[in-house]
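User: Need the bound-state model for zinc ion:
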Amino acid sequence: MTTCGCEAASQRTFTSVRDGIPWGRTSVLRDPVEVARSEEKGMMVLRCRSCGTEWAEACWSSGHMEVYYVFPVPGGEDPVLWLTERAEPLEWDASGPNGSAPSRTEPG
Ligand SMILES: [Zn+2]
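Assistant: Bound-state model below.
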C-alpha cells in the first residue's frame, strides 16, 4: 500500500495557479472523498482517505483546455463553510498549474 503525498505537498506555498498541483486528486491524495462541492464556484473540497488532509480542487482554463488542480484549504477554516463563503480559486496565471506532485514513499 502506498501513502499519500499530502504532507510533503502541503509544505509548499500556494500563491497563484502556477503553484497548484494538476490532477492532485490522484497524484497527491489517496482515494479522495468529496466533502463539499460548489457548482457556482466550480470548486470542491476533497479529503484524503489516507491522512484526512482536506484539499480544495478548482479548475484552471486557458480558453482551450481545462486542468483541475488542488491546493490546501487554509488552516483553521471549516472546509465546508470556507467553500461556501470565502473560497476562491488561486490567482489566475497564464502558465497554468504546474506544481509537481511529491513522490510517494512506501511506508517503512
Ligand atoms: Zn493524505
